[in-house]
Amino acid sequence: MTKKKNLFERFANWATVATGSSGAFIIAVSAIVIWLITGPIFKYSDTWQLIINTGTTIITFLMVFLIQKSQNKDSKAIHLKLNELLASHEGTSNRMVDVEDLTEEELDRLHKFYIQLSNLAHKEDNLTRTHSIDAAKENHKVKLSRYQKQKQP
């Protein structure tokens, strides 16, 4: 399943690991310390200030894209893993697979539904009981009646 990665993909992976390392942080702090030490030598000139401003702006600009690429890849991988869990589990709703493709309004409606499920579970005083999106109210009644029967001596 491993496919040969293109040059940008390999570079992005390498740069993400490299820039997130302790070594990269030490280099960045060292560069700032060197810049500060050279202030008196260059009499805190406009050029001296421009060097740090330009350098940090360029690095920040490039890092935004690198971070976004990394987050997009991680997000896609997490969604695929969650989709696999949903698709493989008998008690889950397959409607939730690819839920990230819904509109904001649809996600808000779905969120309200899950708040209702949470309230139902909270009323049972047992948050470990599960509810499916496909049959929430009916499942709630069945589960509640089972729970009440179990409590009876």
Strand and helix layout:
Layout: H1 7-19, H2 22-37, H3 46-88, H4 104-124, H5 136-151
Structure description:
With 153 residues, the protein is mainly alpha-helical. The chain has two domains: 7-88; 102-151. It has five helices and no strands. It has helices at 7-19, 22-37, 46-88, 104-124, 136-151. It is elongated, with a radius of gyration of 27 Å. The N and C termini lie far apart (56 Å).
Please provide a brief summary of the model.
The protein has 153 residues and is mainly alpha-helical.
* Estimated share of beta-strand residues: under 5%
Q: Main sheet?
A: none
Rg, alpha carbons: 27 Å
What's the number of helices? Answer: 5
Structural class: mainly alpha
Q: Termini distance?
A: 56 Å
- The arrangement of helices and strands along the chain is HHHHH
Write down how many β-strands occur, each being a DSSP E stretch of 2 or more residues.
Answer: 0
- Overall geometric form: elongated
Helical residues, percent: over 70%
